[in-house]
Amino acid sequence: MTASCKWISESGLTARSLFCDVDFSDLAMTKQQDRVHLAIIGMGSTGFAVAEEAAQRLHHPNLERTRISAIDKEAAEVSWMIRQDYPGLQQAVDFHGPLPLDALHLGPDMHDDELAPMLDAASDVPFTAIIVAAADDGCSARIAMRIRRMQEEKRLLLAPIFVRMRMSGTIGPEPVTNLSEGIFVFGGTSVHRRDVALDTLEHDLGKRMHDAWRTIIRDQRPAEDLPFEHISADRQRSNRRAGIGALDMLRYAGLVPPPQDPHDQLRIQNDAAARIETDADLTRRLQKAEQSRWCAERFCAGWTQAEDGIRDDARRRHTLLVPWEKLSVQERKKDLSNVLALIAAARQAHGQDRARPVWRQRVRIGITGPIQLGLDDHRTIKASARALLKNAVNGPPSSFTLEIVCPNAPGFDRVMATALMEEWLAMAGQPAKLLLAQSRAREMLDQDALSVWQADRPRPDPEDRAALLKEETDLRAEFDAQSAALETAAGGHITRLDISQGRTDTPTDADRVVDLLGLFEISDVVIAGRRIQFGPVTGGAIDQVGEAKVLVLDLPA
Questions:
Q1: Does residue 516 contact residue 199 with C-beta atoms inside 8 Å?
Q2: Which residues are within 8 A (CB) of 445 and not within 5 positions of it... i.e. 6 or more apart?
Q3: How far, in Å, CA of 243 to CA of 203, rounded?
Q4: Rg over CA atoms, the chain
Q5: What is the spatial distance between Cα 160 and Cα 163, in angstroms, rounded to a whole number?
Q6: What helix, strand, coil percent values describe the chain, rounded to 5?
Q7: Which residue stretches of 305-411 are H helix?
Q8: Closest listed residue to residue 53, CA positions, set 31, 76, 22
Q9: pLDDT on residue 52
Q10: For the segment 14-46, what is each residue's pLDDT rounded down to a tens digit?
Q11: How far apart are CA 93 and CA 59, in angstroms?
């Protein structure tokens, strides 16, 4: 009997699981950032594994080069390790640091000299996420809590904090419920079925990618036309990286995985596959992303560009470690073949088992409208929700995942969001997701709305304190009821996003226009409620973004 085994890196598995479960590219775009910027605190084995995974996984064609800010109190030692063991990391990403910062000293004091390097690192490009991977759980917990205190008290370093905790249980991270702040644990030691399935998926897709590549080089380089099992371990590893990169390619194409996806297979429906295959601009961008990913994988494996134009595998020098634009048409076919092989594999997997969940096209619908609503407005909103959904979602509901982007202001925003979520559940048989993209806490939004409402309507005699108190109590109760109805309709599928950019003062109308424009930017279509004419905030935002992506619902005058 013969047996075989392979080396397994705990840190590598942990990093892979984190990037499979968290879409950092989408997180950056949702936060309207030009690139992913990760702060990694603690450059031990896990910190370096996370940095390498980021370098090899984050190549969204709509984003600039990924930035990593490394932080470690032993900066000199970490710098030496980078030069010795990770020389390609700085070629694969925009790598800053390591910053000589003892993160255990972090506190809420704005004048804390220990904090200055981290604030400077986030000054021009805010952090997309902060990853804490210190030497032990206790140290990681203390660092995370101090950064969290900074978020709460000073509204600085606003990014989700992912904390490596070996005692947390499963390898994968907790569900991310806030894109701006909070602590989310990952990196336990228990291996579940999804982790084993992910390893199998990586191997199977890597083999399929290799087979697709063989069809391209069969005539030109017959000596390299070998079955996957017969190629070197280095080439197998490279193809496996391409396989796991398939998850990212589907995300770049606008698809999202089903909830609780065990990663045992990637499945897409025929209409989703056809949309990608026939969209020339999309496939070109995916090819560029694949070339960028491959270059990063080779850089991290120790390869460099062959400046003399001669490939030398023994010295790890390659002629094709260049941007996609510099590749020949023949070489570009390799990237295209990888993309098409991925789509074919996902389509075939769905065809073999149509009962299993599939990746779906995500549609984001933003909402904006007046605060004051009457009974007729509620009826109009309820009656119009289904028709608006059909206009916003171009295709069968079974092919889409719906996300409602709601600023969480009382009135039209909450009532329309509730109606859309209820109608979507009835139409698609699956819940929609709710992104509460709000500029202030709900209680403050309600207070702002209360002031606006009272200013725009006849009020009781100021001397009649009882009547004034009853009016305010009734309005607050209505706002609370709207919020409760929205949370019930969401059924727990809620994610929060602070769109205030850390602003602490009461927003002006100009600030509100900027906030609303941000909501428009991350939405595919916007439903805007209008009574006779838009208010100054909604009208100002629509004037800037244009009406092409706006569906207007006229409310009773």
A1: no
A2: 407, 408, 409, 410, 438, 439
A3: 7
A4: 26
A5: 10
A6: 50, 15, 35
A7: 329-352, 375-392
A8: 22
A9: 95
A10: 999 999 999 999 999 999 999 999 999 999 999
A11: 10
Pick left, alpha or beta for residue 103 (phi over 0 → left; psi -120 to 50 → alpha; otherwise beta): alpha
Paired sense of beta strands 360-368 and 255-256, if any: antiparallel
Give the pLDDT confidence of 211-236 residue by residue, as tens digits.
888 888 887 788 888 888 988 888 88
- What average pLDDT does the segment 164-173 reach? 85
Q: Which two tokens stand for residue 532?
A: 């006779």
Cis amide bond preceding 61, omega within 30: no
How many Cβ atoms are within 10 Å of 311's Cβ, its own excluded?
12
**Mean residue pLDDT across the chain:** 88
What's the Cα-to-Cα distance from 543 to each of 281, 398, 408, 550, rounded to whole Å? 28, 34, 22, 11
Is the separation of the CB atoms in 55 and 263 below 8 Å? no
CA distance 401 to 317: 44
138-146 long-range contacts, CB within 8 A, separation 24+: 139/42, 139/104, 140/42, 140/164, 140/165, 141/165, 142/104, 143/41, 143/42, 143/103, 143/104, 143/106, 144/183, 145/183, 146/103, 146/104, 146/106, 146/107
**Beta-ladder partners of 533:** 531
Asked if residues 411 and 371 have their Cβ atoms less than 8 Å apart, the reply is yes
Count other Cβ atoms within 10 Å, centred on residue 296.
Answer: 27
Question: Coil, strand or helix: which one is 170?
Answer: strand
DSSP 382-417: HHHHHHHHHHHS-S-GGGEEEEEEE---TTHHHHHH
- pLDDT per residue as tens digits for the range 108-142: 565 566 677 788 888 888 999 999 999 889 999 99
Q: Which two tokens stand for residue 113?
A: 């000299």
Residue 237 forms beta bridges with which residues?
none
Whether 282 contacts 273, CB under 8 Å: no
Q: Could you give the CA distance from residue 144 to residue 104 in angstroms, rounded to a whole number? A: 9
Sort strands 550-554 and 494-498 into parallel, antiparallel or unpaired: unpaired
For tokens 């770049």, name the residue: 252
Of the candidates 102, 103, 159, 99, the residue with the CA atom closest to the CA atom of residue 129: 159
- Give the closest residue to 200 by CA, choosing from 191, 187, 190, 212: 191
- The helix or strand, by DSSP H or E, that contains position 551, with its residue range, turns out to be strand 550-554
Q: What is the pLDDT of residue 262?
A: 62
- Residues 545 and 538: their CA atoms lie apart, in Å, by 11
Which of 41-55, 95-109, 311-325, 425-439 is predicted least confidently? Answer: 95-109
Enter the tokens of residue 90: 């700085």
The token duo for 181 is 């702040």
- DSSP symbol at 243: H
